[in-house]
Design a protein that fits this description.
472 residues; binds flavin-adenine dinucleotide; five-stranded parallel sheet; seven-stranded mixed sheet; FAD/NAD(P)-binding domain; alpha/beta; FAD/NAD-bd_sf; 16 helices
Length: 472
């Protein structure tokens, strides 16, 4: 170990690993310290149920990963990352056996929404088609790091994105379009009337057309392993099984970069109540299934999709999210599900399948939502229960115990709601810096927020680099 490192990174999630890679790539001496026994944070894969069934306990589907400017600038394929694309990125089934879809093609997507809304959908996405690279760079940036590459496109997108999704869906006449958009907005875990909830809906739809919604071969762990392997190639080192509790436990370094919650950062680095106004959001209840066969969705489209959203109307989706954020467990949850083994045969023994599902619950909720989740799946896939060989469930307490960043089961590491969607963790010119000149924050509690894209780590590395260069 060198006597003085350039940077120590605490936490080996996608953002911590990205920050470490980007600093090591600039020739700095970097070491990473991770509390868990393996790297990955929210991008990991484990045999949670039965031998041979490889589940993603956290992230599974990666529109923002495959479209991330930070990941695209790294040779991750050479380090084993292979993206597998389902035939359809997303299906949204309805009780009558039909489905709306997000397809790679705008035409197929628009047609699935019905004749009265197809034109409105085409007009909504048209200004952004063929411009993912610029849009992703500009949208997944922060307020402070210079002008957007396409200021007009960025401003237009901002006007669309700032709306509540409930306003965006009013442009559409039928429930198919409204529900599929409300479902995509639901990834942000905020009531559909909230500021900025149209942003995720639009971003996920555009990602579907531009880059797809793929899964990594072998599971989400492959993303983390590729980042870890590239980091080691650049001379960086990773230590696992080390929970950092105090700054002075760490080796001497010129910079300390925290892939942690702001609350943990304040405690570890002695920053007092610097983040007392930072709010954590609703939690999730996650179930990973080992299945005897593929999910028997009534809607044929859902059998060809990597991701399936289960929520029959935009109203029901809104009600489920509102209940969870207001502290009530929804009787009928909105479900985000994924079926990676349809396209990746390394996830389960031949003929068998893994299935990934979660619904939203209040933060810290310690009830059991398994029955409510399975009742809802069964409505759209009769016979599902008969296929269940084993299940692993995790409510907020278990999710928080596995990863300290998911405070009370909030998988976004801070509510992605209201002004906190853009001002996170607090109002400051460079959100990655802290009151301590050598301490930085790089987790999804900073812009651009949750998701496996590494962009918070990328921007934080830039802030560290500027500070270190400034000091010679
Ligand atoms: C159930 C679930 C489903 C999700 N689905 C998706 C999805 O499909 N697609 C998607 O893009 N995103 C998804 N996400 C969100 C995504 O996983 C996160 O937004 C992303 O992982 C955040 O990355 P990060 O590096 O900021 O933090 P994390 O990935 O949470 O990593 C933080 C790391 O820091 C470590 N750490 C924390 N404190 C300490 C300490 N004191 N000392 C040492 N180490 C510490 C933790 O152990 C962890 O490894 C999901 C998350 C969950 C939980």
């Amino acid at each position: 170990m060198p006597s003085m490192l350039d940077a120590v990174v605490v936490g080996a999630g996608p953002n911590g690993l990205t920050a470490a890679v980007e600093l090591a790539r600039r020739g700095l001496a970097v070491e990473v310290f991770e509390a868990a026994g393996t790297i990955g944070g929210g991008a990991r894969t484990e045999e949670l149920t039965l031998p041979g069934y490889r589940h993603d306990p956290c992230s599974a589907v990666h529109p923002l990963g495959v479209g991330s400017p930070a990941f695209r600038a790294m040779p991750l394929a050479r380090h084993g990352l292979e993206w597998l694309h389902p035939e359809l990125p997303l299906a949204h089934p309805f009780p009558d056996g039909t489905a709306a879809v997000l397809a790679r093609s705008v035409g197929e997507t628009a047609m699935s929404l019905g004749p009265r809304d197809a034109g409105t959908y085409r007009r909504l996405v048209a200004p952004y088609l063929g411009r993912w690279d610029t849009l992703a760079r500009d949208f997944l940036r922060t307020q402070w790091n210079g002008l957007p590459a396409d200021p007009v496109g960025w401003a237009r997108f901002g006007l669309h994105a700032a709306q509540p999704v409930s306003l965006l869906t009013r442009r559409f006449r039928d429930e198919k379009a409204r529900a599929i958009l409300a479902g995509m907005a639901g990834h942000a875990i905020a009531p559909s009337g909230g500021f900025g909830t149209a942003g995720p809906a639009l971003l996920f739809a555009l990602a579907g057309h531009a880059v797809g919604w793929p899964v990594p071969r072998g599971g989400s762990q492959a993303i983390s392993d590729a980042l870890g392997s590239y980091l080691r190639e650049q001379g960086g080192a990773i230590h696992v099984g080390v929970e950092v509790k105090r700054l002075d436990e760490l080796p001497p370094a010129r910079a300390y970069v925290f892939d942690t919650s702001p609350t943990a950062l304040a405690r570890i680095a002695g920053l007092g109540d610097a983040y007392r106004r930072f709010r954590y959001g609703a939690g999730v209840f996650k179930v990973d299934y080992a299945l005897d066969g593929p999910v028997p969705w009534t809607a044929q489209e859902a059998r060809r999709a990597g991701t399936v959203h289960v929520g029959p109307t935009s109203g029901e989706i809104g009600a489920a999210l509102r209940a969870a954020t207001k502290g009530h467990a929804p009787a009928v949850p909105f479900l985000i599900t994924a079926q990676p083994s349809l396209i990746d045969d390394s996830r389960a023994p031949a003929g068998k399948h893994t299935f990934w599902a979660y619904g939203h619950v209040p933060r810290g909720w310690d009830g059991d939502a398994t029955e409510a989740i399975e009742r809802q799946i069964e409505r759209f896939a009769p016979g599902f229960r008969d296929l269940v060989l084993a299940r692993a469930v995790a409510g907020p307490p278990r999710i928080a115990a596995r990863n300290a960043n998911y405070v009370d089961g909030d998988i976004a590491c801070g509510a992605f709601e209201g002004l906190q969607t853009v001002i996170r963790p607090k109002l400051t010119r460079v959100p990655y810096t802290t009151a301590h000149p050598s301490v930085f924050l790089c987790s999804s509690a900073t812009p651009p927020g949750p998701g496996v894209h590494g962009m918070s780590g990328h921007h934080a590395a830039h802030a560290v680099w500027r500070r270190l260069r400034g000091h010679g």
